[in-house]
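Checklist before submission:
- one chain only
- standard amino acids only
- sequence pasted in full

Submission:
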Amino acid sequence: MSPPAGAIPQDELARITDDVVAALKTVYDPEIPVDIYELGLIYKVDLEDDRTLKVEMSLTAPGCPVAGEMPGWVQEAVEKVDGVERALVELTFEPPWTPDRMSDEARLALNMF
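Returned file contents:
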């Protein structure tokens, strides 16, 4: 059974996924020395068949000083990934971010063990 017309081949999808994660790891919250991926601020990432990447993310706090800028930083980073035509970044605060979402790497960097 062949994939539907326009579907992204699985091997390319895997490469794009790895590249998107790497791109997300280049974006940092300016007040915390850990990237937004390891902080757990990325809630969902979907690549549509038209190669639009949809990112749902949060911030450490709704009043974060870079709330207006960070989605643009994320969009700029992931749109550089080969195979992504454009990115749509949506901010959400549901569920609210908590430190429980951080990776072990982030906890180690912040001495939170």
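Reviewer check: The chain has a mean pLDDT of 91.
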